[in-house]
């Protein structure tokens, strides 16, 4: 069997850059593990890899759904495992890269979906998990429900999970595949947050507001519209806040999201960690190669 390499980490840390470097080295194909890059038209706000950045490397699960498509963890698991099988049949290495922890875990680990359960069954199932953790699970599996739920109220979070058919058996800890290498990228916190702030400014220069206006006009009440970078600008578009306030809100939410991402990857995935220095990225590439070897 050919190998699977997963590259995970917070937003803005350099996952795309590393994945393309390794894919070119090993003639691998890349599968996206970012839950918002699946949608067409959400290019700038999701930091979607460009054709130029791909540099000839085949990418899967980018620009495959219209923004009004309801996409779930269960569907992602099914699609990606089929993609992995097809790539492996070609004798190629698979590189799974992204920052959506639950989506990636559902593929790499033996997570199984429980189906609809009664509230008391859910409470028993999730008894060992904090309300904050369950709220993050709801954000991942059903963002539209999450936006309408009091995320500090455990009972309401459970009721929202009850409405979803995506509940996971979170007790699974074994890898689903053999020959899996998980590389986690991290960065000194102050540098990462500065990089995230600069990245938001760059997105606005590239036309993020125009992209948000398009999404607001055509797909305002969709799962895609819950993505960080778009939902914050909706308040400005509706003239409920200043542009400056909306931008600061994007930066703050992006930083908080990066923190949640790291928490998931450290607690839920068996990562080989690399501390990234973006000024000396060739060292990151070499360290990743050594980990894989």
Helix content: 40-55%
> Which structural category fits the helices and strands?
alpha/beta
- Overall mean confidence score, pLDDT: 88
Low-confidence stretches: none
CATH superfamily of the largest domain: P-loop containing nucleotide triphosphate hydrolases
Give helix and strand order, one letter per element, not per position. EHEHEHEHHHHHEHHHHEH
Main pleated-sheet profile: 6 strands, parallel
Please list the strands of the largest sheet in the order they lie side by side: 3-2-4-1-5-6
* CATH architecture assignment name of the largest domain: 3-Layer(aba) Sandwich
Radius of gyration: 19 Å
CATH topology of the largest domain: Rossmann fold
Query: What's the domain count?
Result: 2
Estimated share of beta-strand residues: 5-15%
Q: Would you state the CATH class of the largest domain?
A: Alpha Beta
Instruction: Give the tally of β-strands.
Output: 6
How many angstroms separate the termini? 16 Å
By DSSP (H or I, 4+ residues per run), the number of helices equals: 13
Q: Give the overall silhouette.
A: globular
